[in-house]
Write a structure and sequence with these properties.
two-stranded antiparallel sheet; 14 helices; mainly alpha; 3-stranded antiparallel β-sheet; disordered N terminus
Length: about 350
C-alpha cells in the first residue's frame, strides 16, 4: 500500500497538520476514562490471549461540528499514517468481535469512521492513502447493509448507513484524478435508475468503462430502468457479495414489478406458472418463500403451480422486506480488505 499523501490547502483556511500518534488524543482518552465513558468495544474481551487485567484501546470519537465547536489543534488530529492504522484496526479487530451483537459493533465502527474522515477534512488531506481509507469505509457500509438488513431500525438505520456509503463513493468516483472500477460499479449499483450516475459512467475512459464489473453494473442499471426483471435477477445472481449488498434495497421493488408484469402477461384460467420457475425468475431462496410472496400479492398458489387470474394482483398493505441470500463463508475483514489491484 502506498503511503504518499498531500495536504491540500483551501483559500483562506489555515493548514492543520496532526501530531497525535495514538488512535485517540490522550486528553480525550483520559477524560472519557475518568467519566467512565469508554465504549465496551474499546475494552479488550476477557478471553484475549495475553491480556492482563482490563486492556483498553480508545479510538477518537466523532463529534459533529456546530456552533460553539472549538477548532481542533494539531495535538487533537491524527496524521494520515495513524488514520490508516486506526481504520485497519477497526476492520481487522473490532469488526471481528463476536462477544457483542454486531449492530453494536456497526454503531461503534461507524462513529469512529466518521471521526477518521473528519480528521482528513480538517487537515485537507489527499492522496492514495485517503482513497484507501474511503475504500475500506465504503466496503464496511456495504457489508453492514448486508449483515444488518433485517435488523430493527432502532438498532441499525439503513438510510443513515446508505448516506455514509454515498459520501465515500462520491469522493472516490468524482475526484477526477484516479478511478477504481470496483467503486465505479458500486456507485452505479447503489444508484440504480439515477440518470446522473449512468451519465457519469458513460463518460469514463474506455479502459474503465469496458472493465467487466462496470459493464455488468451498467447492464443491471439498464435492466432496472427497463423493468426487465428476468435479465436483472440473472445479472444480480452473478454479482460478488458486496455488489449484491449494493442492490439489496431494489430487490423488493423488482419482485413487485415482476409479479405485476407476470399477472398481466400470463393471465389464464386453465394454466399457470410452475412455482419452481417463478422462484428462479425472482431469485428466491426456496419454494416456500416464493409461494408466500406470490400469495401476498394476490396470486393463488395451487400445489406446485402459481395460478394467475385476471385482476388478482394486489399490493400488500406493507411491501415485504425480502432480500437476497448472499452466500459466503468469509469474515468481515476478508470481505472488506480484499486486494485492491485489478
Amino acid at each position: 500500500m502506498c503511503t504518499s499523501y498531500e495536504h491540500s490547502a483551501s483559500w483562506g483556511n489555515p493548514l492543520l497538520a496532526g501530531t497525535c500518534s495514538q488512535f485517540c488524543p490522550p486528553e480525550e482518552s483520559e477524560r472519557r476514562k475518568a467519566l467512565r465513558r469508554l465504549h465496551v468495544l474499546e475494552v479488550s474481551p476477557p478471553h484475549t490471549e495475553g491480556a492482563s487485567g482490563c486492556n483498553t484501546v480508545p479510538v477518537k470519537e466523532f463529534i459533529r461540528s456546530g456552533a460553539g465547536h472549538v477548532t481542533p489543534v494539531p495535538s487533537d488530529l491524527r496524521p494520515l499514517s495513524v488514520l490508516v492504522d486506526a481504520i485497519t484496526y477497526l476492520i481487522t479487530r473490532v469488526c471481528e468481535r463476536s462477544d457483542y451483537p454486531w449492530w453494536l459493533v456497526c454503531e461503534f465502527v461507524t462513529n469512529r469512521l466518521q471521526s477518521i474522515r473528519q480528521d482528513i477534512t480538517y487537515q485537507q488531506l489527499t492522496g492514495s492513502d485517503v482513497d484507501y481509507i474511503c475504500q475500506l469505509a465504503a466496503r464496511f457500509h456495504l457489508y453492514a447493509q448486508y449483515r444488518l438488513w433485517r435488523c430493527p431500525v432502532d438498532k441499525f438505520d439503513p438510510k443513515l448507513n446508505r448516506d455514509h456509503l454515498q459520501q465515500c463513493l462520491v469522493k472516490l468516483v468524482r475526484q477526477g484524478i484516479v478511478s477504481y472500477p470496483e467503486f465505479e460499479a458500486y456507485h452505479l449499483l447503489v444508484n440504480l435508475g439515477n440518470p446522473h450516475s449512468v451519465q457519469h459512467a458513460l463518460q469514463l475512459s474506455n479502459d474503465l468503462r469496458s472493465h467487466p464489473c462496470v459493464v455488468r453494473a451498467l447492464c443491471i442499471s439498464r435492466s432496472y430502468m427497463e423493468n426487465n426483471y428476468i435479465r436483472w435477477f440473472r445479472l444480480v445472481s452473478s454479482l460478488s457479495p458486496l455488489e449484491q449488498s449494493a442492490v439489496l434495497p431494489y430487490v423488493s421493488t423488482m419482485r413487485r414489478v415482476a409479479l405485476s408484469i407476470v399477472s398481466k402477461a400470463y393471465c389464464s384460467r386453465n394454466s399457470g406458472i410452475p412455482i419452481a420457475t417463478m422462484s428462479t425468475w425472482l431469485l428466491m431462496s426456496d419454494i416456500a418463500s416464493t409461494a408466500e410472496l406470490c400469495t401476498m400479492y394476490g396470486l393463488e398458489v395451487r400445489g406446485d403451480t402459481v395460478s394467475i387470474k385476471r385482476g388478482a394482483f394486489t399490493l400488500p398493505a406493507k411491501e415485504p422486506e425480502d432480500g437476497l441470500d448472499i452466500a459466503h463463508k468469509l469474515s468481515p475483514s476478508h470481505l472488506i480488505l480484499p486486494s485492491l489491484i485489478f
